[in-house]
Write a structure and sequence with these properties.
about 475 residues; Aldehyde Dehydrogenase, Chain A, domain 2; 7-stranded mixed sheet; 6-stranded mixed sheet; about 40% helix; binds nicotinamide-adenine-dinucleotide; Ald_DH_CS_CYS; Aldehyde_DH_dom; oxidoreductase activity, acting on the aldehyde or oxo group of donors, NAD or NADP as acceptor; oxidoreductase
């Protein structure tokens, strides 16, 4: 059982007068973590303390900040197995996936430690006796508010980039994975000066209190609904708002691909991490010519997955994060079937403990259904048959979200059309996942704003000061 403590003003164990939350293991319902809830007053005090530390950390030489981040990465590496175990215990994903998320997070910390000190700005020579230069500077105080679905990888990205560019950070991990956030904060804090990092815990109300404070940046990875509330708070306070939010990513299957291979791709995209990935495949538009074979193969793939607790080595499909989320997923599936869709496999809530939900294939869906248009975030593959690649692209583009999309096609011209025509941050051709290390993307529409990953995130957490210098008296230097 984990007992989480907050870190406020460099002091572990501070605050928590807002009560206590208990997190339950989604595999069996047993209690895993107790976590204190910050009051609005504690949040305000933490922001005040962070503001007092900000100037000193901003004034630390970039190479020294980078060295501190390397030491922080060492500390996270030393805690890697503990972090992976906590992730699986709190949100249920298979342990190897959790280990992969921790390894990705460590890699990101090291990448930012290497990249940050070599960044510079432009210089302009306006005349013989003058020079302009643009120097990156930290914003000051950053609030980082994070989700539960890949808690270490996502948090390492935001925290690493914000800290190494000279910002102090108030970290609010998800109330569904607070021990994971606490273990990560402990490891990072061990390598940083006191006060550079604070940890505030609790639910959405703590995040809202933080986003309403006079901080300089609010970086939020999470749902679109929350992102919109944070954007509204930022409009009131003047904070810069960075949002990496939900999606409803489409997969378009062309008529010229092997339907069995396409089904393997679809199964990976829909069922990995039980569908709880921001760029999971949420809706499939398959060409009529291959639709029947594709759906048969996808159904077989879904039925072959081993469902079980994430800690069991043979598990391929862990539970959903909790029963509240399972109700949301199952609600969308039953609404679709009530509107005429047909469940080919799955679609029922299993008996027994935990928050398990089977890999589910729903055929005969229509583009207008909520299951198709909205984010499900579960192991569900809704299939819509289309009569042409053009129709598939048009449906894929018609969404309130704009995170990512995949097309499977043997046609170079269709691939070219896809990346040009789809209004999303990332277009993938012939692979549902992947992407080069260090890659970044800009979400569109309801999926957010700004770069949440890659070297570009260092720019998001920096502001630029432009300096114009002339020789005194307009003459000699
Ligand atoms: P969520 O928005 O409910 O919670 C995320 C964080 O926001 C938590 O720490 C939560 O306490 C906090 N929060 C909740 N209400 C708040 C409010 N009113 N003001 C401020 N903070 C508040 O999201 P979630 O359920 O934890 O995560 C799942 C969502 O995250 C999915 O929609 C998924 O697509 C998205 N996600 C996006 C990316 C990406 O890069 N685009 C990555 C991972 C997850």
């Amino acid at each position: 059982m984990y007992t989480v403590a907050q870190l406020i003003g460099g002091v572990w164990g501070a605050g928590g007068a807002g009560g206590e939350l208990v997190v339950h293991d989604p595999a069996d319902g047993s209690p895993v973590t107790t976590v204190p809830v910050a009051t609005a007053d504690e949040v305000a005090k933490a922001v005040e303390a962070a503001q007092e530390t900000a100037t000193e950390w901003a004034g630390t030489a970039p190479a020294d900040r980078a060295a501190a981040l390397h030491r922080a990465a060492d500390a996270v590496e030393a805690a890697a197995e503990e972090l992976a175990q906590a992730t699986t215990a709190e949100m249920g994903k298979p342990l190897d996936d959790a280990r992969g998320g921790v390894a990705a997070g460590i890699g990101t910390l090291r990448q930012y430690a290497e990249l940050a000190p070599v960044r510079g700005g432009r210089t302009l020579h306006g005349g013989q006796s003058s020079i302009d230069f643009m120097a990156p500077e930290p914003h000051g105080v950053v609030a980082a508010i994070t989700p539960w679905n890949d808690p270490v990888a996502v948090s390492c990205g935001l925290l690493g980039a914000a800290l190494v560019t000279g910002n102090v950070v108030l970290y609010k991990p998800s109330e569904r994975t607070p021990a994971t956030g606490w273990l990560l904060a402990k490891a990072l804090d061990s390598a940083l000066p006191a006060g550079a990092l604070s940890l505030l815990t609790g639910g959405g109300e703590v995040g809202a209190a933080l986003a309403g404070q006079a901080v300089d940046v609010v970086a939020h990875v999470g749902s679109t609904a929350t992102g919109r509330q944070i954007a509204a708070a930022g409009a009131r306070t003047g904070a810069k708002v960075l949002l990496e939010n939900g999606g409803s990513d489409a997969l378009v299957v062309d008529s010229d691909v092997d339907p069995v291979w396409a089904a393997e791709q679809a199964a990976l995209g829909c069922f990995a991490n039980a569908g709880q990935i921001c760029v999971a495949v949420e809706r499939i538009y398959v060409h009529r010519e291959v639709a029947e074979d594709f759906v048969d193969a996808l159904t077989q793939r879904a039925e072959a997955l081993t469902m079980g607790p994430g800690r069991d080595p043979g598990t391929q499909l862990g539970p959903l994060v909790d029963r509240r989320h399972r109700d949301h997923v199952h609600g969308q599936v039953t609404a679709a079937t009530a509107e005429g869709a047909r469940v080919r496999t799955g679609g029922t809530v299993p008996d027994g403990p935990g928050a398990f939900y089977p890999a589910t294939v729903v055929a005969d869906c229509r583009h207008e259904m909520t299951l198709v248009r909205e984010e499900t975030f579960g192991p569900v593959a809704p299939v819509i048959v289309v009569d042409s690649f053009t129709e598939g692209l048009r449906c894929a583009a018609d969404s309130p979200y704009g995170l990512a999309a995949t097309v499977l096609t043997g046609s170079m011209s269709h691939a070219q059309r896809a990346w040009r025509e789809l209004p999303v941050g990332t277009v993938k051709v012939n692979s549902v996942f992947g992407g080069a290390p260090g890659g970044a993307a800009q979400p569109r529409r309801g999926s957010g704003q700004g770069f949440g990953y890659g070297p570009e995130l260092l720019d998001e957490f920096s502001t630029v000061k432009t300096v114009h210098i002339e020789a005194p008296g307009g003459g000699h230097w």
